[in-house]
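request received
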Amino acid sequence: MEWVYFGTSIAILVTMVLAVVRGLIGPTIFDRVLAVNMFGTKTVLFLAVISFLSGRPDFLDLALAYALINFIGVLAVLLFFQSRGVRRDAEAEREADK
Amino acid sequence: MITIVFSLFLLTMLVIVAVGILRTDNLFTAVMLSGIFSLIMAANFFILDAADVALTEAVIGAGISTVLFLGALALTAEYDRSPPVGTWVPLLTSSALGGVIIFATLQAPRLGDPNAVVHKHVAPWYLDRTPELIDVPNVVTAVLASFRGYDTLGEVFVVFIACIGVMSLLGRVRPRRDSIEEDEFDKRTDNLRHHLIPRVVGKMLVPFIVLFGLYVQFHGDFGPGGGFQAGALIAAGVILYSLLEGGPRGRELVPEWFSSLLVALGAFTYTCVGVVSMAMGGRFLDYSVLSHDPVHGQHMGILIIEAGVGMTVTGVMITIFHAFSRRGIR
Amino acid sequence: MDLLLDIASAILLLTGGFFVFVGGFGVMRMPEFFTRMHAASLTDTGGAALILLGLMLQGGLTLVPFKLAAIFLFLFLTSPTASYALANAALLSGVSTACRNETGAPLPENEVDSADSKPASKSVAKTSASRTSGRKTTAKQAAEQAAPKAAARKASKKAAKKPAGKAAKKPARKAAKKAAGKPAGKKS
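response:
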């Protein structure tokens, strides 16, 4: 089974690299958020596979924590853009009223 | 062998991402890349068997710091200003420092070398005596909470002081409102209430996050975890709720007086354990005297001080988040 | 029996790894943000499910499969939610949803229902009032298409910063808010 775990983790690592490249080249900021989100999911999988590869499946708690926490950041991004958009509109409106 | 290869691979990625963070002038991009940075770091800690640190890095780096960075970003401009001085002096300084560090690593022992100095000093003693003196399976917890209780007390106070620093910067005062419309405006923008999917899923997950936090808190003697991680997880649950339902409702759930009380109470509890153990005839933070049986006393002491750490960290995270959300994530 | 389990989990793991890789490849190669997101989110859930299932078969009768099942469940809940939030954030700040061909020119969009294209301001108003309905999103798309300054879309790769894109959108949104002010107020 070793080589199967190894192959899977290599596939995940390569995908992590692709996500990092996407995060570095952008072009929009949302591509970068996408890269972070994808990287987080890949980290969960990577940790799960690695904990089997190194024979310590009781360390899965970490992957569990990641799976629970990872999407809070993206929700914050949504909130950030939502309020920024509304705020900019409000400012534009105020200027137009003047 | 495989783990070392993976670790080197991840470290290379880490360097690339770090250069990316330095090169960008868009702060939002920097925030996102630092999210990736801490995820890589956490995976690397995990590969190197440091499960407790990896858990901390995961919860704080991937979850909470992104939220707090975005809150800070909302209060400032999105673009970095070009540095005021020329690039020559910093470049020379940092390359000189880097050269010194690289020179120092030439003398460092190889990774995992059993004859390295750190492994000859007190570490074997900790490993040998933990089953006998403290009897918890997770030696990290024993070292952190008991053998090195002073250091951890110091860390708790560092977190405490950091919280005071942030509060004195951001303040408690309600920001000036232009009109009542502004309040109405806040109601529409500082929550995700009309986004049904995140709202339903998020509210479903909040109890699980808090439950998992409690598990990490009280399972810390046996597996990776402890007060720091648990505090961050529980705070993440509260932060998720506040993101979904808006700042005011989040402050109704955990009022600001309560979160700042938690900050103080946690540090106070930790110190009290030390003082009580002194009053019972031992040394400061010597838990063995807390009970008739020294090992049982150690267990009790570790449980209480971990609870104190958890309270402080939870309180600090929630207080800082509330301070940002009062100003509005916008 | 053990051999069968091993083979099954090997197949699941390797297929999962392949899916994960395809997702990463898609994120690199797809031409537009939304197509990239589609590649990432689809293969994310598929690959994660296969890998976690494959690991579950190896766990034996311990706590491990349950933990893996919990991870599976949470990933299945959070990953689409994150995609939803991300797509919404991108849509809110005006990343173009129009597909382009290789030369960069927008493709003709047949699926946009022209009956929906009321005056731009109104349809945008609806979308900002209730963003949960997919149909309304198409309406916004149509509105953006109809808007005279839609040429600014070319610049929309940096939409958040480009003044042209903002200028095109601001009057529309402003009118939108006046129209939507009351219902939105009621909602919150």
